[in-house]
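Entry for the shared binder. Reason: the reviewer on the internal report wants the predicted structure included alongside the sequence.
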Amino acid sequence: MTHIIIRPMKIALLALGLAANVTLAATAEIPNLPENSFNNILTPDNSFNKGGSLLDSLQQAEQESKKTKYLEALNLIKANKLEAAKAKVNDLIKQFPKESAYLDLEALIAVQEKNPEAAKQSYEKALALNPNDMTATLGMARIAIDAKDLDKAKGYAEKAISINAKSVPGHLLLADIVNNQQQTGQVESVLRNGYEKVKGNAAAEIELATALAKWFTLQKQPEKAVAITQEVAGNHPQDTAALSLLAGAQAAGNDKAGAAQTLNKIIDQDKNDWIHRIALAQILSDQPDKEKQILSLLDEAIKAAPDQPQAEIFKASYLTRLKRFPEALELAKKIDGKNPKSAAGKLLKADIYLAQKQLDKALEADKEAYKIQPNSKTMSVIAEILTAQGKSKEAVAFLQGELPKTENPATIHFLLGTIYQRENNPAEATKHYEEVLAKQPENAIVLNNLAVIYAEEKNPKALQMAKKAYDIYPQSPAIIDTYGTTLLKVGQAKESVSIMQKAVELAPKNPDLQFHLAQSLNANGDNKQAMAILEKILQDNQQGFSEKTAAEALLKQLKSN
């Protein structure tokens, strides 16, 4: 029976997004300028078309002036200088009362101020002036989504597409809406339709292909993700973004060789491309024979972008994995010295100390990082280190002190539950686990840990909890183990055998799981196979065999029968 403890990594090895970070929602509050209404500002009146080049020049100058004013106001909004933006936009609306674009800006300010009703009113005024105002149409769709009026949102998204079939945000928004309407079967067709409409525009193709690839990944269809990204990369073989998208899909589909080949193409095209050098280093990092190449790639990335910390951070982490601790620590200190107000260097130092089992130094570095950037991952590691040092009371006090400050108390309750469970205080552990389940009823780890406690207490809810955890996460050896041993404890020995066999298949080198399978076989009268398993795991003398004494006792008992 396995009590699960989460030991989170504080610094992921640079989880780069290889392609553009495009979401189905397309909900950026600041619209991209090419879609903005200033492109529609006062096209020349047809009645003046015969006026000659002078009039054309005057009209063009007027449009350029309006565009400039629009951009000035938009930049104020982007800089969050909302009062100055309001004043400028109000003046523009007074000067040009028939221009919908400036009403769009007024709506955007309201969105930034989290005033959807005011935004809606401004967008409605804009649409009254210009029914084909794309920004206002998309804005109304987003407001309708936030109001949970998905049918209305869908209408606006479809209208946006009818205004401009090549509008990427319209297609992305429609896909998001049909997904929220539980019409998941339509998401692919909506995105594919958009993809076909924008063909020929590399940036738009890549954006919609990215959305499709992400959707296929969510649907566990990696082969489709690779196919669409291969098509885009084939259409635009020199486009870095297209190749990057393909590399991301290949990596997600576990085709590391293909991803490496694609990343090499990108790197060959641009000697200063530091992002994809780091990505290639990351792809290769689990291959021991690539150490020299990886370090060379990272050094090239550092040289190409000396002000960007990502390559140095990854290099320090990689050196730690190689157990080249002095070099790793020197680099971590350099990173910390460059930016002492950042947590990154301190977290790296903590990782390096932790890898060397220097717990006091690791704890000090983690605490420094936590002061700068408090988060659940670092908090968890601090609690784990304190517990490992035999300072469980200090760990509990630290976590309880963080409870009033956090927006996510479930994480702290989980950590407290695991500490109390290890300290053999099931009552306190149960209390905190139940706090988690109140917010996260499908948390398989908490269900598993509660099942362990209930089984030890002979609480009939043990099997229910273990089965629910198993149903949620049927590929976890630890959760399968808890379910199998609980079945055995409640007298369902026959059922426990097949469950424990599954656990052993998933983690064949875990001696505790082998022992539990032997127990199940013994309970079913298959003493011969049980003895064979016990003799093997005891002969192998594997480290981390927590139930070795019990296994020896069972084998002795079986041999005496």
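Summary line for the report: Residues 6-52 have pLDDT under 50 and may be disordered.
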